[in-house]
Design a protein that fits this description.
The chain is α+β, with helices and mostly antiparallel strands and 185 residues long. Helix content is 15%, strand content 28%.
């Protein structure tokens, strides 16, 4: 622990999830219930059809379905949904690091004033994350990498020796009130 720590709060039930693995598992479960997926198709318009079905138009094709899930994240506002207002989201860039510590070097999620650390069983530690309003720029910056590494070491000094194994950047969708937008349209 950091010698500068003045206190801590232990939350034994605090957990974390591998987002990619969770998403793939959810898709697999949906497929078993006969859902079909079209991804990375560049949807540009969703409209209703006279027979109660829905059409999804891309730049290359149009598909029909009984229902459609709009899950385009930061790009949702670029898709026209017939009869609905534009989805009011914008992208917020988040940068994070993955450090490679020794397995078991950390066993708990740690939060601090400048971010958080998430340990994995293999010793990797996710260090996150930035919150940047820079449009659709998914590049990472040396400044953010340095800030995140410094924050990690300030929380857990032993991470100073952990090499950076990966830098990740993604875009989070930000709505007008910072809560998820879920529900039928």
């Amino acid at each position: 622990a950091s010698p500068g720590a003045k206190g801590a709060l232990l939350i034994p039930t605090h957990g974390y999830v591998g987002v990619t693995a969770l998403t793939l598992a959810a898709m697999d479960a949906a497929r078993k219930l006969y859902a079909r997926f079209k991804s990375e198709t560049g949807a540009i318009r969703i409209s209703t059809l006279p027979n109660g079905r829905v059409a999804v138009k891309t730049s290359h094709a149009t598909w029909e379905a009984d229902r459609v899930v709009l899950a385009a994240g930061s790009w949702s506002s670029h898709i026209t949904v017939e009869g609905a207002d534009t989805v009011p989201v914008k992208p917020i860039r988040g940068q994070l690091l993955q450090l490679q510590a020794a397995p078991g070097a950390m066993t708990r999620v740690v939060w601090g004033p400048g971010g958080y650390l998430v340990p994995w069983v293999d010793g990797s530690v996710l260090v996150g994350s930035t919150v940047e309003d820079v449009g659709f720029d998914e590049s990472h910056t040396d400044e953010a990498v340095t800030r995140l590494r410094d924050m990690a070491v300030s929380l857990v000094p032993s991470l100073a020796a952990a090499p950076t194994s990966e830098v990740r950047t993604g875009l989070r969708p930000k709505g007008p009130d910072d809560v998820p937008m879920l529900g039928p349209s």
